[in-house]
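Duplicate of #3305? Posting structure anyway:
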């Protein structure tokens, strides 16, 4: 009886999928992470170059979703540990980072961004549309950077809430903004909001959204970004669960329209 009612309620749900971008639909370990490491190395005069693990470690604090701020923080901590007072202008950090990430050419062809491997596929998003699922993006990346990867995925006219549009995660305003934009385009209003992200900040965003706008049912779906090595995957998944993930998947592609979320949670 219980199983039957669960299936019934799942099928009458109107779901909306909102995706984080970095680490979810594109692999940023060779781009954002590399630019971040380059930036910290440069401003610490080659004193410190953070590894992927050290960058992830900082991100587990849930506050450093913005990679410019994360760069600044790692530089600050390096000098604090040496008990040195060094003042570096934030704009200089941003400018250096962007030169690495976007390169020097106007089409960004020589930037790290041009080499980002894609995780999601054009077909994946088409399958969501065919299944009647509304979908969009809430990302801390700049609109230009997010737009660049969405264009590569041939996603036309996306619902996108980017860095310029809302406060950074874990503030849930941007997530709800994306949901409302999808809602305004659809006949049926969604009652289930699924947010897919790869960091603690993403999971906390969903936790906060439940208080902020209690009219939806939420699922926080964690995905493990590709740069996390096999031996660290269980720990990474546990960390996402501790911070609110209802389900952790190995890739966004596992979140199919057919996946019964309520049942996945019980199993
Ligand atoms: Mg991310």
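Output from current build:
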């Amino acid at each position: 009886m219980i199983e039957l009612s669960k299936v019934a309620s799942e099928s009458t749900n109107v779901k909306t999928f909102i995706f984080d971008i970095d680490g979810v639909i594109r692999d940023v370990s060779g781009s954002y992470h590399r630019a971040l490491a380059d930036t910290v190395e440069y401003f610490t005069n080659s004193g410190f170059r953070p590894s992927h693990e050290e960058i992830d470690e900082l991100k587990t604090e849930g506050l450093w979703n913005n990679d410019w701020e994360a760069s600044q923080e790692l530089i600050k901590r390096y000098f604090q540990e040496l008990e040195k007072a060094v003042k570096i202008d934030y704009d200089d950090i941003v400018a250096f980072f962007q030169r690495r990430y976007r390169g020097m050419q106007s089409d960004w062809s020589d930037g790290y961004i041009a080499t980002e491997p894609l995780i999601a596929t054009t077909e994946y998003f088409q399958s969501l549309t065919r299944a009647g699922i509304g979908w969009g993006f809430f990302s801390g990346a700049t609109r230009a950077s997010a737009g660049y990867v969405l264009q590569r995925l041939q996603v036309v006219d996306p619902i996108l809430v980017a860095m310029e549009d809302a406060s950074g995660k874990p503030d849930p305003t941007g997530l709800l903004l994306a949901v409302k934009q999808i809602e305004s385009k659809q006949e049926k209003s969604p009652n289930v909001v699924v947010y897919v992200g790869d960091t603690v900040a993403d999971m906390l965003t969903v936790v906060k959204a439940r208080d902020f706008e209690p009219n939806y049912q939420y699922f926080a779906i964690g995905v493990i970004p590709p740069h996390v090595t096999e031996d660290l995957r269980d720990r990474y998944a546990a960390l996402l669960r501790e911070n609110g993930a209802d389900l952790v998947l190995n890739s966004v592609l596992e979140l199919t329209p057919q996946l019964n979320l309520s049942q996945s949670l019980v199993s």
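Confirmed duplicate; merging threads. The pocket of magnesium ion is lined by residues 20, 22-24, 197-199 (CB under 6 Å). Residues 1-8 have pLDDT under 50 and may be disordered.
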